[in-house]
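Hi support team,

I submitted a single chain yesterday and got back a structure, but I'm not sure I'm reading the token output correctly. Could someone confirm the output below corresponds to the sequence I sent? I've pasted both exactly as they appear in my results page.

Thanks,
R.
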Amino acid sequence: MDNKARFLAKSAVKASDLDHKRKLAFNIQKYSDTVVKGKKQFAQLENARKKAKNCKWRGIENLDKNLELFEKNFTARGGKVIWAETAQEALDAVLTICRQKNAKQVVKMKSMVTEEIHLNHFLQQHGIESVETDLGEYIQQLDGEPPYHIVTPAMHKSKEDVAKLFHEKLGTDPQLTPPELTQIARANLREKYTTADIGLTGGNFLIADIGAVCASENEGNGRLSTAFAKTQIAIVGIEKILPSVKDLSLFWPLLATYGTGQNLTVYNTIFTGPAQPGEQDGPEEMYVILLDNGRTNLIHRKEIRESMYCIRCGACLNVCPVYKNIGGHTYSTTYSGPIGSVISPHMKGMKDYSHLSYASSLCGSCTETCPVKINIHGMLVENRHIATNEGKGSFGEDMGWKLWKRAMLSRRLMNMAGAGTKEKLVHKLFKNSWGAHRQSLHFPPKTFQQLWKGRNKN
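Hi R., thanks for writing in. Yes, this is the structure output for that exact sequence:
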């Protein structure tokens, strides 16, 4: 079964799963309610969004210079930068560091880029334990599932689901409350922080002018992951660059508001390298792995380049009618929802993932809600054009739409086909996409033109 067929099969199952949709709707609504309140902190929200978009434009249009400036400033403080063109290069770099340090265990904060390269599985294959310390990620790791949502990894689970999971995996009481479950996770993870050899993070932003990695979190697990380990590794996508540390005063509130509805995320940390002489905190060594892994494909496509402005707030997922019906795992990609459907075909291959760009109603809600005003639904259309122009569609589909267009543009051809012919044609062409879930279409015996002529024959 290819990716498209798998996606359609999963979609059909999830769209009919009322319990799944209930849990998802409940959790998304909680976020939506708080986001409305969070936006009130901005006196001029539209101006803030425009300013943020312009800032990301400067960062991406001068990406080469900004990344080199980041490297220069970061290494000046004793940090080490590794450039990884592919996921495998990033994995090999992490493994090399782990072997140099004889590491048997790493603790890591929530990071979508490490999910993108399947770091946990890779380290496990090489005998290294990788422990997720974010509560949502910890739940997903226990369940053997990837994150469900960019911001909320376990969004599809209810408190009863988590209690049952902890009972099965950890032997706890299946009736525990959320605070009690949190305390269980806390007790299990505290020991890991002090025994881990390496602390691993992602990064919400890279700051060029001071050479820094910025990480935002709500639980403090990120700081604990880097507090005790002597070595820190940050894996960050190259698109996370911001020109100046001054930009954080805008991007931190935007990320918090659109991600979770907060005025500001609880913990915001700026890592500028290893501990300096006289400092008591910080790792002895810090590495930053700058990951491409298909991101430059987005730069080369001017019509899609804007997708690199994404700050991974997850807002477009929360408003998308398709995501609300089929959920995150159906996409079978690290980045799901509208923005994932834009970038995944370019990062993972248009041939295997072009179908994601059709998983959209093109209602424009994603574009309307994006904090940096990315034209998401417009780029989904561009992806469709690219896929068609590159011949990624089937011969039957291409011919079908050509014939359909020809008929729609000709009143004479439309009139030649009677109601019965039209019904047979439509029901055959759209038997699965329309007929499987809706009543049959019935055409009137006379066309509007025939009715009009009959009414005005005198």
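A quick pointer for reading it: The chain has a mean pLDDT of 93. Let us know if anything else looks off.

Best,
Support desk
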